[in-house]
Amino acid sequence: MNTLDNIEVDITVELGAATMPIHHLLRMGRGAVIELDAMENDPLKIYANNTLVARGEVSVEEGHLRVLISQKAFKRG
Can you give the residue ranges of the Flagellar motor switch protein FliN-like C-terminal domain (predicted)? Predict the structure, then answer.
């Protein structure tokens, strides 16, 4: 198992997404709000190296934000 200890994986958690022209983004200031395409109870998307691997939900415990995995999304070959 020691060889697995040295493998790095980039984990990304997506709350939602939005599409907008770059000039709108550049005009945004502090406190600006970007509306996402997800509702508050929609599952988060969890990616490993840009591949969707699971869905989850946000949890706050002892002041720390956590992601709880609720469903694996592995494709079987």
Answer: 3-71
> Has residue 1 been placed in a domain?
no
**Stated pTM of the model:** 0.73
User: pLDDT digit of tens for each residue in the chain (77 aa)?
Assistant: 678 888 999 999 999 999 999 999 999 999 999 999 999 889 999 999 999 999 999 889 999 999 999 999 866 65
C-alpha span between 36 and 13 (Å, rounded)? 14
Cα–Cα distance measured from residue 56 to residue 69, given in angstroms and rounded to the nearest whole number: 4
Structure tokens at 67: 């992601």
Give the CA-trace dihedral at 12, 69, 43, 16, to 10 degrees: -10
Question: Tell me, what CATH number does 19's domain have?
Answer: 2.30.330.10
